[in-house]
Amino acid sequence: MSNCAIIFIGPPGSGKGTLSNLCVNTLGWEQLSTGNLCRKHISERTSIGQQIDFAIKSGKLISDRLMTDMVDEWLAIESLLNKTLILDGYPRTIPQAQALDELLKTKYTSLKLHIFRFVIPDECVISRLSSRYICSNNKCQAVYSLAEGSKLAPKQSMICDVCNSPLYQRKDDTQEAIHDRMIVYHMHEQELISFYRNAGYEVIEVDANRPHQEVFESFKQFITPICKISTQ
After folding, report:
1. pLDDT tens for residues 10-35?
2. What is the pLDDT of residues 146-179, one digit of tens each?
3. Cα gap 20→53, rounded to integer Å
4. Which residues make beta-bridge pairs with 87?
5. Direct distance between the N- and C-terminal alpha carbons of the chain, in angstroms, rounded to an integer
6. From residue 32, how far is each of 5, 109, 124, 127, 227 by CA, in Å?
7. Which CATH architecture best describes the domain 3-227?
């Protein structure tokens, strides 16, 4: 049976990370987090990590080629595990999408790619992100919400449930910064969606403006026949 590779396309705060964690913890999937992978390479001072660290310290963006090399290395290991793989944070650009498409067609032919787009109004994203707090432990990075009535609120005020580290709010999670990020995001989102549709992929839309558990249950109905797996 072919393995599945899943791409979640959606703005920050749309619930991609939460759904990814549910899939990992409930379904036993593997998740690629480019942010975590970058930090791992930097801390281990690998060749890729040194190049990433140099780019960051030089105030430059990490190149598409370098990001792809890092993902390629990850896929070389994870594609052998016979698990569904979630690509979180990659691809973000057309060159990355083209490079991944080439890798899947030539090197990882057993992986069948499926794209899910998270649909949610901008005002809901702004509300979610402005209430979002992150664990300060780089090895944890658990996400919480301080919105009233949220099920993602920490059990102790401003303390991570997982590792007891303090929580903090990212500088780019202010309402003004979020608004600017959304403008940039929508530009890249439309380019990615057009690329995948033109390449013959179906882009499945998921209503993300619901409680996370409802989104998860709806997603499982989509994915069960696609990847021919049991979600029980």
Report:
1. 998 899 988 998 999 999 999 998 88
2. 988 888 899 999 999 999 999 999 887 888 888 8
3. 26
4. 7, 32
5. 19
6. 10, 18, 26, 26, 18
7. 3-Layer(aba) Sandwich (3.40)
